[in-house]
Structures are given as structure tokens and as C-alpha cells.
Amino acid sequence: MAKSTLVENVKASHELLRTCNGQKKRILIAISGPPGSGKTTLAETLVDKLNQNSKNFIPHAALIPMDGFHLDNDLLRDQGLLERKGSPETFDTSGFCEAIEKATHCDEISFYPQFDRGQDKVIDNAIEIHPKTPVIVIEGNYLLLNYEPWAQLQRHFDATIFISPEIETLQKRLLNRWIDNGLSHEQASLRVQHNDLTNAHHVFNHSRRADLLLK
To answer: How many CB atoms lie within 10 A of CB 99?
Structure first.
């Protein structure tokens, strides 16, 4: 994502957040879109911006990535799904939905998993969220899917954002991502065509309309 675009998208996301109900103790904002759309970059930058005004060492915002709920590689291999890792059926959907419901409460310190791309594994309890942190940003491909069990997430979100780049842009970004992760050009191209872009089309075709659409 170009720096100028990122700045504008963060500004628009911040303005959306300002419209949320100020009476609630905690606001949940969802950032969704296809793989390679820049969700993580936007989410991390928005959280950093919000935390510039944090007081008393309590973060004003925290980030929960959906990637922390990838199913284990051994389990995916046993189910014949390892080559489809990243598709909706390769996530602990029930666990993720329960975690997001838990995030709506501010009763105690809570912990969430994080995906380590370098190790290609989930690190349990890697994210700590303070009970007084008022804004939770959630990012992931499938947050706005319009069928169960994903659809039950909608009732927890106070604001939703969808990033929608052109397919050609996604293809280029995803190809470079896999090459940077050590795959050959041929291997990367096959992975993009047979998995990532399949998932991207699924997101485009089955996501609810967001409060804010970003290009």
C-alpha cells in the first residue's frame, strides 16, 4: 500500500471510529478484505496512531489478528487441507467467534494468540489486552462473511472497514509475498492462483457491506 494511500486510509478509519457510540466502555472495529489487501498494515498503523495518546501506560487500542486462529499444520495435513491454508475452513472459527465475544468485555486482562509467519505457527497467549483499553481493532479476511458461523461476528462490531484493491494488484502483492518467503516464482504463482486468489474471490463474493469501503 502506497504511503499516501495508507495515510488517507488511516485518516478515514480514524474518522469512522470517532462516530462510534462514546457511551460504551469498549469499541470493536473490524478491518476486512481479501489476502494481500493491506489489512494488517492499516490495522497496525491505526493502532499505533491511537496509542500515541495513551495515558498511564494503558494502551488506548489493541489489535487482534484473525491469523492467530489458524488450525495447526498437522491437523490440516490430516484433513487434506494444508494446501488450502488460509481458506475459511482452515481456521478455528468457533474459537475465533468466542474470542471476539470475550473481547467485548472489559472485566480482566485477556490473552489472545498470534500467528508467527516465520515459524508458520500460532503462538498462544502472545497478545495481552488490558481491561481498560477502550478500542479493539480486529483484522482478517473473513470478518464480514455473510454466512454462519462467521455472520455471528457482526453483532460485536461497532464499525466495519473493507479494503478492496483490484485483483491485478492483489496478484502482484501475493506473488512477491511468497517469493520473499522463499518460494520459487513457479511455486509462488501456483500458490497465488490456486489458493490466495480463490480466497480473494470468496471474500469479494460473500462479504457484507462495510461501513467504510477503502480502495
So the answer is: 19
- For residue 181, report the phi and psi dihedrals to the nearest 5 degrees: -90, 10
Burial 42-53 (b: 16+ CB within 10 A, else e): bbebbbeebeee
Angstrom distance (rounded) from CA 34 to CA 183: 21
Given a contact cutoff of 8 angstroms between Cβ atoms, the answer to whether 110 and 97 are in contact is no
| Cell matching residue 188 | 509462488
* 3-class secondary-structure state, position 25: coil
Q: What is the DSSP letter of 35?
A: T
This prediction's pTM? 0.92
**Residue 79: how many CA atoms within 13 Å on its side-chain side?**
13
Calpha distance 62→59 (Å, rounded): 7
Torsions phi, psi of 32, nearest 5?
Answer: -125, 175
The kind and range of the H/E element at 3 are: helix 3-18
Kindly give, in sequence order, each residue whose CB lies less than 8 Å from that of residue 138, ignoring residues fewer than 6 positions away: 28, 29, 30, 31, 43, 63, 64, 65, 66, 100, 103, 157
CB 203 within 8 A of CB 140: no
Question: What domains are there in the chain, each with its CATH number?
Answer: 3-166+209-214 (3.40.50.300)
29 beta partners: 137, 159
What would the pLDDT profile of 89-148 be if each residue is shown by its tens digit?
A: 999 999 999 999 999 998 899 999 999 988 889 999 999 999 999 999 999 999 999 999
Residue 187's φ and ψ, nearest 5 degrees, are -60, -45
